[in-house]
Amino acid sequence: MSTPQPLLILTPDDLLAERWRALSSSPIRATELSGLDSWRKAGHRLVVVDLGGYPPAAPPLWTRDAWQNNAADLAILATSSRPDDEEGLAALNAGACGYCHSHAPIDTLRQALEVIAGGELWVGRALLSRLLRLVDSRLPRAGLAEWARPLTEREREVAHHAALGESNVAIADALGITERTVKAHLKAVFEKLEVTDRLQLALRVHGVR
């Protein structure tokens, strides 16, 4: 099933553009970044961009005026045929709402577009962990955060590690407890903070929600 929203396909690659047409019932293609401006002015939001389809010597797409002037009002899924965490971080920091492989399965790309159209982020686990650590490093450390007040000291420790994208095994090793105990603490944390998954927990801990 294709995405119902109008979709701007931004790539100079004819084969990739043809493949991406399956993502939407009403796709429009552009090959130049200036297409973002026209798309925004037409009242549309959803965009899938091929970051790797342009000459390597050219400035990265997210550094150009057409991107920076329009990204805030668009839902951009940035893609690359050779995904790299540094590139992903840069694109997300410049306003992209998601980052993934340009040749990911169509169902995966479609799901990513649905997620960013709903106002959420779409990134891989490793990149999400780096993003959360970056946010965490910039947070003030004054006093006990509001989210932590209903939790025990151990629950706070587990929640903080989980919010950085660490696995249950890694949390258990870091805190010197069993994986089963980690799961029990996370269950209590989810209930007390009224969240249903690790992403919601991370957003709460890092003050995004």
Give the overall form. elongated
Q: How large a portion of the residues is in β-strands, by DSSP E?
A: 5-15%
Sketch the topology as an H/E string, one letter per element.
Answer: EHEHEHEHEHHHHHH
Q: Please estimate the helix content.
A: 40-55%
Strand sequence of the main sheet, in spatial order? 2-1-3-4-5
- The rounded distance between the terminal residues' Cα atoms is 31 Å
User: In DSSP terms, counting alpha (H) and pi (I) runs of 4 or more, how many helices?
Assistant: 10
Main sheet attributes: strand count, strand direction, barrel closure? 5 strands, parallel
Poorly predicted regions: none
Structural class: alpha/beta
Mean pLDDT: 87
Total beta strands: 5
Q: Taking Cα atoms only, what radius of gyration do you get, to the nearest Å?
A: 19 Å
Summarize the structure.
By secondary structure, the chain is an alpha/beta fold.
Explain what the structure shows.
The protein has 209 residues and is an alpha/beta fold. It has 10 helices and 5 strands; from the N terminus they run βαβαβαβαβαααααα. A 5-stranded parallel beta sheet has the order 2-1-3-4-5, sandwiched between helices. α1 links the parallel β1 and β2. α8 packs across α9. The longest helix has 15 residues. The radius of gyration is 19 Å and the shape is elongated. The two termini are 31 Å apart. The model has no long low-confidence stretch (mean pLDDT 87).
Secondary-structure blueprint of this entry?
Blueprint: E1 7-10, H1 14-20, E2 27-30, H2 35-41, E3 46-50, H3 65-68, E4 75-80, H4 85-93, E5 98-101, H5 106-117, H6 125-137, H7 153-163, H8 168-175, H9 179-193, H10 198-205
Parallel strand pairs: 1-2, 1-3, 3-4, 4-5
